[in-house]
Amino acid sequence: MRIITGGMNHESNTLNPIITGEDDFVIFRGERMLSEGMLPYYSSTGVIRTLRETGCEVVPTVLARAVPNGVVSARLYAALKAELLERVEAALAAGPVDGACFGLHGSMKVEGLGCAEGDLLAAVRKLLPGVPVTVALDMHATVTDELLAHADGLVGYKTAPHVDCAETGAHAARMLLTALRTGKRLVTARRSIPMLVAGEKSESAAEPMRSLLERCREAEKAPGVMAASLLLGFPWADDEHGAVTALVTTLGDGKAAKEAAQDIADGLAEAFWARRRDFVFRSEYYDSAEAMRVAYKAVLEEGQAPVFVSDSGDNPTAGSTGDSTDVLERVLETMGTVDSLPTPLLYSGFYDAAATAACLAAGAGASIDVTVGGTWDRVNGKRITLGVEILRTIRGYGPYASDVALVRHRNVALVLTSKHIGFGDEELLPALGVRAEDHCLVVVKLGYLEACFRDVAARAIMATSKGCSNEVLESIPYRKIRRPIYPLDPSMSFMGA
Ligand SMILES: [Zn+2]
Question: Cβ(36)–Cβ(28) under 8 Å?
């Protein structure tokens, strides 16, 4: 069997003014997808591996991925879409195609277009009418009518933080192969749940997500049920599609399969809604000033180290700008205390291309003034000038080829990057010769701690700081989200409850 595959993965934060462009993406084209694009945290890796293991001919198209950020450039999306479609056409010219299986985020937005995945699949469907199409989605996917209309089977990640990406890709590939082998159709039903859920309230290891996802896994054991997913949507995109979705794919022809899928989706939606008040922050949390006060006390009076403070309102991996200065301002206001800490306070970090370039130009050992913050987030970010000593610089770090600098301002060690990359990256600090555990206090622009930090943290404190990934959804001035929606409208009812 010949199966088309490809992927686009971007979570677009519409509160962030950055337009995500070509420099922000890692793009694998054609055969390169099969050689260099097989990373363990890509859903397409599971798709490709499963198809190959079953003897299918895999036809690669385009795989494009970027760190969550502002909406994607219209020009770039048009070019990626055109290239993907050209490759589908070339595959068709070479012989029959039996199906298609894609790895997509589900919350990618394009300037002037809005939700991208439905648009992409509609175009693919035009070229491949009558062949089954399955999709592996992120757990934070937004499900639009168009996306649903042009995919036969869909399945989302069941872990957050996401550690089952390749597994979900394999699941999507298996659904496709089952449909092809049996000659039966895949049908998908959904139930939208009018809720916005902050990422830090919905880790899959904690309640209520743990039980709700278990319910999905149980549902998948029933005969004919191919996938049951709870897709949380993306609360930092202000558009009319924002919601949680229960999505169920079954195998079979006719009304019975559709009704079975709808029954299960309704049951999942009802169960999700019943637990709505149980979505709460798991770690201790405070506003920025209080978070720093509690952290200083933990280090200086309670002897805890390292204490982590998540600057959660400006988390680049949730698409924030990475240059809000809310927490940095609180640090600079309390420099007397910071200077008394037994080790430098490590702050990882700031996305500031100009400041990073100035550090690379001056080189390690030099002392210069750099200005950080407020380039993109002009609401929560101020331009702050700091006298710093440059400790270390790296050119072209990681898959996004970011320049990185480690600088010191009094008793603060600060990481600066030239590209919008995530600060939960476990290799970033070691590349700078830094170990988080050698610092008594670590501030990181991140939400829940990634395993590399969680494993060493003596204490994890979340600052509900100001930025484009503000975790206090009730305080975001949404304009387009469809109302009523929970928790913005806490007394609303849904499905009779
Ligand atoms: Zn996600």
Answer: yes
Residue type, 450: E
Q: What is the dihedral of CA 312, 238, 159, 486, to 10 degrees?
A: 90
Distance 140 CA to ligand 1 centre (A): 4
Q: What is the pLDDT of residue 451?
A: 87
Question: For the chain, what's the residue count?
Answer: 497
Q: Do residues 326 and 382 make contact, with C-beta atoms less than 8 angstroms apart? A: no
**Rounded distance from Cα 424 to ligand 1 centre (Å):** 14
Query: Considering Cα of 34, then 39, then 80, then 398, what sign does the dihedral take?
Result: negative
Side-chain half-sphere exposure of 408, counting CA atoms within 13 A = 15
210 CA distance to ligand 1 middle (Å): 16
- Environment class of 367 (CB within 10 Å of its CB; exposed 0-12, middle 13-18, buried 19+): exposed
- pLDDT, averaged in runs of 10, over the chain (497 residues): 97 97 96 95 97 98 97 98 98 98 98 97 97 98 97 97 96 98 97 96 95 98 97 96 98 91 98 98 95 98 98 97 98 98 98 98 98 96 98 96 98 98 95 97 94 95 97 95 97 95
Please give the distance, rounded to the nearest whole angstrom, from the Cα atom of residue 418 to the centre of ligand 1.
24
Report DSSP state, residue 436: G
CA of 157 to the centre of ligand 1 (A): 8
CA of 158 to the centre of ligand 1 (A): 10
Walk me through the domains of the chain, giving residue ranges and CATH numbers.
2-278 (3.40.50.2300), 284-470 (no CATH)
Q: Cα(476) to centroid of ligand 1, in Å?
A: 20
Give the C-alpha separation, 232 to 318, whole Å. Answer: 13
Report how far residue 313's alpha carbon sits from residue 326's, in angstroms, rounded to the nearest whole number. Answer: 9
- Residues 22, 85, 252, CA angle at the centre, nearest 5°? 120
Residue whose entry in the numeric block shows the structure tokens 């039966």: 184
pLDDT confidence of residue 254: 81
C-alpha 327 – ligand 1 centre gap (Å): 24
Q: Calculate how far, in angstroms, residue 268's C-alpha sits from the geometric centre of ligand 1.
A: 20
Q: How remote is the CA of residue 298 from the centroid of ligand 1, in Å?
A: 32
Work out the burial of residue 282: count CB atoms within 10 Å of its CB; fewer than 13 is exposed, 13-18 middle, 19 or more buried: middle
Query: Quick one: pLDDT at residue 450?
Result: 87
Distance 295 CA to ligand 1 centre (A): 28
